[in-house]
UniProtKB/TrEMBL annotation:
Signal peptide: none
Organism: Stackebrandtia endophytica
Pfam families in UniProt: PIG-L
InterPro entries the UniProt entry points to: GlcNAc_PI_deacetylase-related (IPR003737), LmbE-like_dom_sf (IPR024078)
Name the UniProt record assigns to this protein: LmbE family N-acetylglucosaminyl deacetylase
Keywords: Zinc
Domain of life: Bacteria
């Protein structure tokens, strides 16, 4: 794609809730923007549908889950995020269910964000690169849950009052990016946050995409060709 990316709007909001399927989903690109926003004094919280327990081929799920939770909490703190929650849906088998929508809507009502960040929910990352079911299903549930959170007649068991203040859903890793954030000054934090998943990355072995600094820098430069040749991370921005 060669279309110029627009600047992601950074005025008129103060709270972000990032909702993804697994530990490390946000670290593959989005945390450069998150570090920028926390530097600006914005509140950012994470909600993860699973603990990523099925993601390490050399470690049984009962052991892998706590490892990945600990790595995610450390990674979040490196970009200024202290609030990290896990829903404990089964890694690799997450369904786009009413129950998942309800749990996401509950978090939206409780945290009251104006911006939601999620991971690519499309069928592919790009030509010939198939996306996985957990990403597709969580992303789809996020889009529905934003509207669910605003409807007072849905999920009436949730204690927090309805919230209709979400302005945008920003989809990281989308093949249809429309906007970008300059991460020139936060690349170090972005790299450190991905490196915090070291035991997971070691588990990937030859399947790892590249060392964090190499991978994230290459991706930021590529996105930057559509954004004034700055180091950047892209988002597909959906107005709600």
């Amino acid at each position: 794609m060669t279309d110029i990316l627009e600047q992601f709007p950074e005025d008129g909001w103060s709270r972000v809730l990032a909702v993804v399927a697994h530990p490390d989903d946000l670290e593959y690109g989005a945390t450069g923007a998150i570090a920028r926003w926390t530097r600006m004094g914005r509140w950012v919280g994470y909600l993860l549908a699973s603990k990523g327990e099925a993601g390490m081929d050399d470690v049984p799920p009962a052991e892998a889950g706590p490892i990945r939770v600990a790595e995610q909490i450390t990674a979040a703190r490196l970009v200024g995020v202290e609030d990290v929650e896990f829903l404990d849906y089964p890694d690799g088998l997450i369904e786009e269910s009413v129950a998942l929508r309800r749990d996401i809507a509950e978090a939206i009502r409780r945290h009251r964000p104006e911006v939601i960040v999620t991971i690519n929910h499309h069928s592919h990352w790009g030509p010939g690169a198939l996306n996985m079911a957990d990403h597709r299903n969580v992303g789809g549930a996020v889009l529905d849950a934003v509207r669910d959170a605003a409807n007072r007649w849905l999920f009436t068991d949730i204690e927090s009052s309805p919230w209709s203040g979400v302005k945008w859903v920003a989809v990281a890793g989308s093949p249809h990016s429309t906007h970008a954030v300059d991460i020139t000054d936060t690349m170090d934090e972005a790299v450190a946050s991905l490196e915090a998943h070291r035991r997971y990355l070691d588990s990937l072995g030859e399947h790892a995409m590249a060392e964090p600094a190499e991978f994230l820098s290459a991706m930021a430069r590529q996105t930057g060709t559509r954004f004034g040749n700055r180091m950047a991370t892209g988002f597909e921005v959906i107005a709600m």
